[in-house]
Amino acid sequence: MRGFAMIEPGKTGFIEKADPKVGERDALVRPLAVAPCTSDIHTVYEDALGPRTNMILGHEACGVVVEVGREVKDFQPGDRVLVPAITPNWSDVYSQAGYATDSDGMLGGWKFSNIKDGVFGTRFHVNDADGNLAHLPDEIDPAEACMLSDMIPTGLHASEMAGVTFGDTVAVIGIGPVGLMALRGAVLHGAGRVFAVGSREKTVEVAKAYGATDIIDYHNGGIAEQILAATDGQGVDKVLIAGGDAEHTFEEAVKMLKAGGSIGNVNYLNGHDNVVFNAGDWGVGMGHKTIHGGLMPGGRLRMEKLASLVVNGRIDPSLLITHRFEGFDKIPDAIELMHHKPDDLIKPVVICNDID
Ligand code: NAD
Ligand code: ZN
User: Fold this and answer.
1) Which domain holds residue 221?
2) pLDDT for the residue numbered 49
3) Is residue 167 located within the same domain as residue 257?
4) Of 293, 310, 341, which residue constitutes the final position of a domain?
5) 41 CA closest ligand 1 atom index
6) Ligand 1 atom showing the smallest separation from residue 110 Cα
7) Helix 177-188 vs helix 151-162: angle between axes, to the nearest 10 degrees?
8) 159 and 206 housed in the same domain
9) What pLDDT score was predicted for residue 47?
10) Of the four listed, 51, 82, 116, 128, which is most buried by Cβ atoms within 10 Å?
């Protein structure tokens, strides 16, 4: 098989490898479409995960099952499948405790393009196929199905962790594809006023389409300052973080948060940084402000439920896809776009119609 890999930090290219071995509960899948993630860029170019060599990248795909292990019950070769970016080990005790993303160690549910080869291969391996794959509904186009791997589940998880509820005032910091889905999640959870913090024309247009009521441009001054001014000094009930960094963004988030409020962070921070915020803004440690941070939950049930949101028109993933490429060999072009992030980019997708 062939795959597009991180050869060493800062260096990518196509490599050849033996097809992965399929265990009794596993599946081998060929991609129908794949999408690069900002996390692939953090991994390759920002040393965010630590060094990896000859590791095939990618964790956003849908595909066709090629082979299954003897114990797989619900999938067979030829089935078209949704593939979550996070594929937990469902027998682990952390899964039993409700933290499947941390099965096999903290963040151990994140296997593709982290601890094993990812989905940018002509074949890729899925552990626990019955627990992690979902059938791809006929109504969902393969390019849009890639948004169900990571963007939709991650964004929605931010609003879930923050506990957005009816009438909440919510601020979403960072309106790339993850933030846009966090925003949509807040709207679906019943938020009232929703501030989208971003500046690019394209993302602002899509934020409004997903239900943002106010746009805050972080180039025009402090985010907290602008949001406090817009809310008569009251601030917001919930903050969803999908952009910014450890050293500045949490300070703004804690400052704009009402007492009793909570933050849902899904931003992938740099492991070398410290998260910084002011104790006074936290009510000198007693302001009942809560920070949650989490990896998107993976697994089959979650995929099936999120697919239902797409099939029934609650989420339109097509608004996220600004660039489409045809052919597996175009993966490097899509990665380069993600790396350089032109202003009109939200998300590129590569249709792999040339692999069999
Ligand atoms: P993105 O780069 O497309 O979007 C982030 C946006 O934040 C950009 O538009 C950027 O301009 C904006 N931004 C930067 N600094 C800002 C600031 N100070 N204030 C407001 N906005 C600011 O990235 P994305 O693909 O939407 O992903 C967002 C983050 O989520 C990334 O760090 C990614 O690695 C991470 N991620 C996490 C998970 C998870 O499971 N937790 C999954 C996927 C992606
Ligand atoms: Zn990702």
Assistant:
1) 155-293
2) 80
3) yes
4) 293
5) 34
6) 40
7) 50
8) yes
9) 80
10) 82
Is residue 245 a part of any domain in this protein?
A: yes
- Cα 28 off chain centre by: 23
User: What pLDDT is attached to residue 270?
Assistant: 87
Looking from the CA of residue 269, the nearest atom of ligand 1 is 32
**pLDDT given for residue 34 in this prediction:** 98
Q: Ligand nearest 42 Cα, by number?
A: 1
| CATH code for the domain in which residue 274 is found | 3.40.50.720
Mean pLDDT of 204-219: 97
Q: 60 CA to middle of ligand 1, Å?
A: 16
Q: In ligand 1, which atom is closest to the CA atom of 296?
A: 40
**C-alpha 37 to ligand 1 mean position (Å):** 10
Ligand nearest to the CA of 241: 1
Q: Whose CA is nearest to atom 4 of ligand 1?
A: 176
For the chain, what is the domain count?
A: 2
Q: If you take atom 18 of ligand 1, which residue's CA is the nearest one? A: 244
- Taking only the tens place, the pLDDT of each residue in 251-261 is 999 999 999 99
Per-residue pLDDT band for 222 (boundaries 50, 70, 90) equals: very high
Nearest-CA neighbor of 238 among 285, 292, 313, 188? 292
pLDDT of residue 111: 97
User: How many angstroms does the Cα of residue 199 sit away from the middle of ligand 1?
Assistant: 13
